[in-house]
């Protein structure tokens, strides 16, 4: 058995996790176990309805957005929207991770001794384990991935916890590999969260009673269980089919209209799922494929089997013991893109067959892999454009900028008047680069790139270089054509999304190790300038060019035409930010202080009293002395 | 084994529609009305509204169809004769509707108008609306939905029209109009597979759910729908309640058989492939910006040697010398080709969809028109042709100007703004100059007997041009480049001055020119 392929999880660890998970049944919240250099935390599952759907939550699936201060990585970087998770599970985690708990102290201790932590649990205990792992990753691991050991999360028949952004964020940070979820074929629990709360509310308490392993009174045949199973699977079918149509882009407009009438579960599989057949274990990490499998592995092959499945859907929730015991004898296979590219649908088809997936169902799973293949190909296409991007940027850096500087007004001002042939050349390059970055943006918005792409350090660094170098040209262009008069300020109406996304990517990798978010950092800095009442200042600076270094020129252009008294706060903010931007490389100090620069010319006109106390005074004086 | 992705998608969408429960909700209300003792008593249209928890249902009930009628009513694009003028596109200015459905629709026009405002309120409160009906009732429901869609803010949820075994309502023109509109996504027609629908005159639009025994597929491709359902209409009534029950029973089971003939699938796939290859106007917009940058640079370089880019282009066309000039010609061809395709795409769309076009796109188009059309004019007059504005303009310019004019843009132009990069508002300005030069030529080459009447006529034309130019100067809507030394406009002015002589009374314009005020026109003050 090649379990090592599961990112450092071996058979022993799984067995130990399962045993710990069982022990947790009898605890109040969790059970802790040490095995050599590994510490295992197993969480107690709950079988009451209010621990599955938070009672006060009025949304159709009991979901809630994750707090971005506490979980800064759990969102889409570019668009900025946070991941959604089940509120009941999140509340449960919050109780457990309270700094006053023994759990918190234990984790601190393990972290202190650099021991590897495994979070585990059966049923909803697994959901807690997943969120606890995310919490650990955000609180400890990102601060210093070289020092803190990688966590592991092993769940048995856990319900789904988060939405597609949750799964995307884990993929982007390369954390998906830490999560392994075991699912026995008919187990209903991993599918429950795909059903609408309202449709299962009536039967849920009864079914949960049946699912509880500590409950001795298990009934064989039960109408309520059949009803529950049918409802869950019907909704699972809706979600799986809708997701499939969306993924493959069929009938987009009609699908959109139709979907607006549907209540669709937001929850999606995250991490690796391990399905079990008689002979083998099949590991799948493609979230779309897993979703299809959750539906198709639970279908009956004939009428007779059909009537037995509802009961099996309960019983299989109790059969993880057998799964763990028989693991050693089974083959282990990866149902992934690699295998798909290796021999098409041959092996994958036969594994799915063993899992009871119909011919049609197999095609859905394969189509999901086909889409993954397209995402990888899209990434390659973009990577092929890197040399061109680098070439154009280098020309701007090494040719254009120095030549403009020689004219003492910098490339911003040169481009703004565009009287030289080089300005024209730069304009063509600007348009070419915009084409490439807009294409990437389009793919990223539609989810047509691998999850890891958005977080890739190399790409973010290239995009940052692009943003710092070229955005000033876009701003110059905007003001050359007087679009600020026609359409409104650049920051409000003109800033292209390709720069906004690039800025967020940059902020993400800079702030990630500190566990902070950009908005807080910005307002902290502003507050540090002591310019007045916090709320008033926030209102004044909303969507101002001081938000980002590469928008420096946009702010200068906005302030330039206005009387000082009107914009005093904005002027002072800009000056206050400038030092940091220069140090970080956001703004080029060789450019902005040049004699012919719009910035310098404007700054000179500011009231004497302001200039006297300005932090830029020295800079400006230096330049004067130098010339 | 069917391995094609198209058939997979059709069946996934079919299952989704089925498991959504929307068909059941609609049908149960329809059958409720049909069963009630009051139905079918009169021959008019019945409408009933159900306000459910999650959505509002509007059910249309019409008298049964006794004969399969294929009468059609032609609706011209004019507002007073057509309740759907907003649907007409430049390409399809009129279309025909199924007469029985249209008659029922117009007969209840008053109550439908009332219903419309009611439903708009519902939609604004974010509650989705389903409009449904069986048989002829479904046809009227479709018509009503089309009508309703015009007034719905694109930001709101779109309503969904669900019909059961309904006759088709529109001809090939309506089909083409809707094919290019997002409205097409608001129609779901449920049809039992054994049903045959006459498609010789009326054509399908929207999405079809075709129900086989225990399976169903959802198809949007109208050709495939026609291939599957076209035939002589049989009068056998289908009980859709039963159809839905049968489908329901097998929803969670595994059986999955081939439903659509391989040949139909193949055709669908080919058409889908073609669609992806179709012109993507947004993707190429950045490339076009590069071409525009070239021409902008060209314009600037020309100005440096005191000749406008219009006149430079005209001379260079006659005597091509530099590579740069040839490049400019190619960029112009590229740009023309692109915008011609864009305009063609847009013209397929219903009128009311055009306003949805993104602003950025409309502005780019306007920029293109003002920048490039002068070059087309140069080419035109160089070839010795006349009357460009009325007989020489390419369609894309006419349409772009029209659409730009329709957009309510309130511009606040600063009085003292520097106009050196301004593009003349009227992109046909140079054609007017050329026409005026021709008039001067005619005046100067009068041979033989003087013809006073002709002379007066020609002179009046010149004065009209003067007034036209002065108006633009006054409004600061013309580029200062027209005053460059070697420009055709200045050539015109020199001749005009001679003709006018010193005897005619001075005008604002002649004073502006004679005193040299024009030299500072457009400079920031």
From TrEMBL, chain A:
Example of a GO MF term: hydrolase activity
Main subcellular location of this protein, as a coarse class: cytoplasm
GO cellular component: cytoplasm; nucleus
Cell location: Cytoplasm; Nucleus
Keyword presence, Hydrolase: yes
Pfam families per the UniProt record, alphabetical: EDS1_EP (PF18117), Lipase_3 (PF01764)
Alphabetic keyword roster: Cytoplasm, Hydrolase, Nucleus, Plant defense
Fungal lipase-type domain sequence ranges: 70-195
UniProt-listed GO biological process terms: defense response; lipid metabolic process
Cytoplasm among keywords: yes
Alphabetical list of CDD domains matching this protein: Lipase
Ranges of residues in domain EDS1 EP: 398-616
The protein's name: Alpha/Beta hydrolase fold
Provenance organism: Arabidopsis suecica
Upper lineage: Eukaryota, Viridiplantae, Streptophyta, Embryophyta, Tracheophyta
From TrEMBL, chain B:
GO CC terms: cytoplasm; nucleus
Recorded superkingdom: Eukaryota
Keywords, in A-Z order: Cytoplasm, Hydrolase, Nucleus, Plant defense
GO terms assigned for molecular function: carboxylic ester hydrolase activity
Annotated ranges, domain Fungal lipase-type: 98-191
InterPro entries (UniProt xref): EDS1_EP (IPR041266), Fungal_lipase-type (IPR002921), SAG101-like (IPR044603)
Single GO BP term: lipid metabolic process
Subcellular location: Cytoplasm; Nucleus
Domain EDS1 EP: 294-501
Protease keyword on record: no
Keyword Magnesium: no
PANTHER family assigned: FUNGAL LIPASE-LIKE DOMAIN-CONTAINING PROTEIN, SENESCENCE-ASSOCIATED CARBOXYLESTERASE 101
Protein name: Alpha/Beta hydrolase fold
């Amino acid at each position: 058995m090649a379990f090592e392929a599961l990112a450092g999880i071996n058979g022993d660890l799984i067995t130990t996790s399962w045993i710990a998970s069982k022990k947790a049944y009898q605890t109040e919240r969790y059970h802790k176990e040490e095995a050599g250099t590994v510490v295992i935390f197993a969480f107690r599952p709950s079988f009451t309805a209010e621990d599955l759907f938070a009672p006060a939550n009025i949304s159709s699936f009991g979901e809630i957005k994750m707090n971005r201060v506490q979980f800064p990585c759990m969102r889409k970087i570019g668009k900025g929207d946070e991941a959604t998770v089940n509120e009941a599970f999140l509340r449960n985690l919050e109780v457990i991770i309270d700094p006053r708990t023994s759990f918190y102290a234990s984790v601190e201790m393990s972290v202190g001794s650099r021991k590897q932590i495994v979070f585990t649990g059966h049923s909803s205990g697994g959901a807690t384990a997943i969120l606890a792992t995310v919490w650990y990753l955000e609180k400890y691991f990102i601060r210093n991935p070289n020092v803190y050991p990688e966590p592991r999360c092993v769940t048995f028949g856990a319900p789904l916890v988060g939405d597609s952004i949750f799964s995307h964020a884990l993929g982007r940070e390369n954390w998906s590999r830490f999560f392994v979820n075991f699912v026995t074929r008919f187990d209903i629990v991993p599918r429950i969260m795909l059903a609408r709360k309202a449709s299962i509310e009536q039967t849920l308490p009864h079914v949960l009673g049946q699912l509880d392993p500590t409950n001795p009174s298990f009934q064989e045949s039960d109408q309520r269980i059949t009803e529950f199973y049918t409802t869950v699977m019907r909704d699972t079918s809706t979600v799986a089919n809708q997701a499939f149509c969306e993924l493959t882009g069929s009938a987009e407009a009609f699908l959109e209209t139709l979907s607006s009438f549907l209540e669709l579960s937001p929850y999606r599989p995250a991490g690796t799922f391990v399905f079990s057949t008689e002979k083998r274990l099949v590991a799948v990490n493609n979230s779309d494929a897993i979703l299809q499998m959750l539906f198709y592995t639970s279908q009956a092959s004939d009428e007779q089997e059909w009537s037995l499945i509802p009961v099996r859907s309960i019983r299989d929730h109790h059969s993880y013991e057998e799964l763990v015991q028989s693991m050693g004898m089974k083959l282990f296979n990866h149902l992934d893109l690699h295998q798909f590219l290796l021999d098409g649908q041959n092996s994958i088809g036969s594994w799915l067959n063993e899992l009871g997936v119909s011919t049609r169902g197999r095609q859905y799973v394969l189509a999901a892999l086909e889409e993954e293949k397209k995402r990888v190909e899209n990434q390659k296409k973009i990577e092929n454009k890197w040399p061109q991007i680098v070439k154009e940027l280098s020309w701007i850096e090494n040719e254009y900028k120095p030549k403009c500087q020689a004219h003492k007004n910098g490339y911003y001002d040169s481009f703004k008047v565009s009287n030289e042939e080089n300005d024209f050349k730069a304009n063509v390059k600007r348009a070419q680069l915009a084409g490439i970055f807009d294409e990437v943006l389009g793919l990223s918005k539609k989810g047509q790139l691998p999850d890891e792409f958005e977080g890739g350090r190399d790409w973010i660094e290239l995009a940052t270089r692009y943003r710092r170098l070229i955005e000033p040209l876009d701003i110059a262009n905007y003001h050359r054509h007087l679009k600020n008069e026609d359409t409104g300020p650049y920051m409000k109406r003109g800033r292209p999304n390709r720069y906004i996304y690039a800025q967020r990517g940059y902020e993400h990798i800079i702030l990630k190790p500190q566990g902070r978010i950009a908005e807080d950092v910005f307002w902290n800095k502003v507050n540090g300038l002591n310019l007045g009442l916090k709320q008033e200042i926030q209102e004044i600076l909303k969507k101002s060019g001081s938000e980002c270094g590469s928008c420096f020129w946009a702010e200068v252009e906005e302030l330039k035409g206005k009387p000082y008294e009107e914009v005093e706060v904005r002027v002072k903010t800009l000056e206050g930010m400038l030092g940091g931007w220069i140090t970080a490389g956001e703004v080029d100090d060789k450019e902005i202080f040049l004699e012919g620069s719009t910035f310098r010319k404007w700054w000179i006109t500011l009231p004497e009293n302001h200039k006297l106390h300005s932090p830029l005074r020295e800079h400006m004086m230096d330049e004067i002395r130098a010339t | 084994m069917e391995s094609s992705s198209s058939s997979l998608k059709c069946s996934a969408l079919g299952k989704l529609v089925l498991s959504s429960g929307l068909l059941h909700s609609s049908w149960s209300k329809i059958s409720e009305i049909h069963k009630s003792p009051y139905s079918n008593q009169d021959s008019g249209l019945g409408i009933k509204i159900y306000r459910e928890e999650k959505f509002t249902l509007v059910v249309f009930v019409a008298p049964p169809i006794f004969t399969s009628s294929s009468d059609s009513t032609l609706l011209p694009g004019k507002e007073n004769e057509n309740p759907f003028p907003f649907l007409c596109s430049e390409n399809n200015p009129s279309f025909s509707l199924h007469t029985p459905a249209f008659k029922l629709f117009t007969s209840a026009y008053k109550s439908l108008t009332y219903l419309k405002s009611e439903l708009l309120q519902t939609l604004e409160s974010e509650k989705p609306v389903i409009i449904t009906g069986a048989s002829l009732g479904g046809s009227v429901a479709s018509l009503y939905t089309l009508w309703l869609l015009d007034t719905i803010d694109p930001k709101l949820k779109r309503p969904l029209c669900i019909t059961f075994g309904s006759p088709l309502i529109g001809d090939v023109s309506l089909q083409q109009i809707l094919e290019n509109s997002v409205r097409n996504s608001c129609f779901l027609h449920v049809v039992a597979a054994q049903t045959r629908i006459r498609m010789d005159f009326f054509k399908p639009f929207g999405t079809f759910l075709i129900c086989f025994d225990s399976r169903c597929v959802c198809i949007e491709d109208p050709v495939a729908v026609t291939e599957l359902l076209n035939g002589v209409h049989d009068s056998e009534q289908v009980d859709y309640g039963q159809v839905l029950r049968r489908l329901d029973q097998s929803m969670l089971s595994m059986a999955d058989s081939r439903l659509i003939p391989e040949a139909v699938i193949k055709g669908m796939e080919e058409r889908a492939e073609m669609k992806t290859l179709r012109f993507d106007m947004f993707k190429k917009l950045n490339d076009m910006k590069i071409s525009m940058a070239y021409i902008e640079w060209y314009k600037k370089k020309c100005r440096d040697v005191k000749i406008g880019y219009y006149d430079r282009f005209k001379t260079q066309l006659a005597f091509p010398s530099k590579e740069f000039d040839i490049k400019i010609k190619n960029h112009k061809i590229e740009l023309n080709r692109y915008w011609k395709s864009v305009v063609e795409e847009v013209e397929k769309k219903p009128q009311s969809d055009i306003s949805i076009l993104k602003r950025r796109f409309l502005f780019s188009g306007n920029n293109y028109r003002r920048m490039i059309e002068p070059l087309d004019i140069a080419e035109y007059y160089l070839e010795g042709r006349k009357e460009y504005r009325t007989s020489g303009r390419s369609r894309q310019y006419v349409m772009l100007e029209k659409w730009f004019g329709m957009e309510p843009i309130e511009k606040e132009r600063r009085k003292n703004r520097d106009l050196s990069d301004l593009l003349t508002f009227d992109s046909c300005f140079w054609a007017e100059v050329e026409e005026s030069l021709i008039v001067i030529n005619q005046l100067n080459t009068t041979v033989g007997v003087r013809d006073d009447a002709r002379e007066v006529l020609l002179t009046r034309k010149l004065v009209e041009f003067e007034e036209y130019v002065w108006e633009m100067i006054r409004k600061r809507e013309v580029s200062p480049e027209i005053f460059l030394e070697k420009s055709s406009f200045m050539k015109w002015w020199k001749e005009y001055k001679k003709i006018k002589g010193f005897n005619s009374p001075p005008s604002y314009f002649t004073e502006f020119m004679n005193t040299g005020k024009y030299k500072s026109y457009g400079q920031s003050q």
